[in-house]
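Changelog entry: the WW domain-containing protein record was regenerated in this release. Current contents:
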Amino acid sequence: MSYVGLLEGGRWAQHSNPAGQVYYTSLESQESQYSIPSGWEDRPGDAWDYDDTYMLWRNVRTGRIVFMDPNPPPARLYTEDRIVATHLRTLERHPDSSEALHRRATTGMLRFLFRSEDGYDVVQEDSRVSSTPDHTVFKVECRARGSAYVYDFMMVECKRANENWEAAVEHLTRHCENAQNESRQVYGMVQVGMDIQFFHWANTTLTAVSDVCHLRNNAERVTQWAEYLKANPWAFI
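Regenerated structure tokens:
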């Protein structure tokens, strides 16, 4: 455990554990807690000083220490989002990661690109008759008189690195066959390791609409393709 400083007033010491969590020890009772002591909570508008020697931020008003920027700049790309970036770094450090770890990164990336405030929902492992896509991106549409309905926007097949690409595309085909849109049209995405590609399903045929992109190296292009899909939806009915 590492000592990182006192809260303002000198009544509480701050320590960090090996996971990077900060906990607080009362200098009076010697009892420790992970919750922020009452009265030292952060407030909107608090100023934070960055210590580049110890790579931490200190609340100017309370003296509270944190190890992640409390006011990060808005992420323009999913690779700039701290949660998605953490999952991607895990895959890069451990290329043989399980499919489950790959899906974590995919979930974060999809939720960044297809946001709930724009009417999208990202669900993992949505069971469909004879196949189970790793993710389904839904789109909520509001009909006349205010009734809201959920439609399939994109089916996703995710595989760990070094899995067979053609087999993944075949699995995506089966998922798209089970799409529930009356129009029988839906977008699709295949991911194998860090490589992804977007598709369109219509007339019982799966057609590529993008080139193969790398999640890290081609984040700008992946984002552009996602924007293209959203700007060019297919009829659901």
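The CA atoms of residues 185 and 234 lie 7 Å apart.
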